[in-house]
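ingest -> validate -> predict -> emit
validate: passed (alphabet ok, no gaps, 180 aa)
predict: started
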Amino acid sequence: MSVRDDLKASYDELTPLFEEMQNASDRVAAISCAAWVDDSLGAVLSKCFVEMGADWNNRIFNNATAPLNSLSSKITLGYAMGLFGPLTCADLNIIRSVRNDFAHRAAPISFSEAEIAEKCKKLTSPFRMSAGITGAIPTTPPPEPKRLYIRASQRISFDLIGWSRANQPPRPSFPADILP
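emit:
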């Protein structure tokens, strides 16, 4: 199931997917959680565009040269459009960076490695209670890095889907052609 295709998936259906990641290998968890975040962000962005059909959707999101093919480009556009603030933007970039660490290294890698653990300790999404809170609420002791990463990914995915459901912005229409 693609979130972009089905924003109606219930939280009850999605929660087990993230819970499964706690028992998955670190590499699988890092890449899979980031994929859900990527797809959730793509789903929200696509709801802000005119209805263009599958061919144009692929041209924008899926093809190798698509302008929104990367998580980085979706993060940049989402932030520029005001879909999320600087704390979520920072968390999204941490998720992207950790995902890249796992995806682009052939040697064994884990969340317990110092560089990965330090990145995960900077995640604030698991500690923010609702939209509009500007700071993070620390916990003692902080969860281990893998759990923080999974929680941040889940929280951001759920918040993006929830925002899309709650706001249901009307899709813009194509403007009239300016040329005859």
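The first helix runs from residue 11 to 23.
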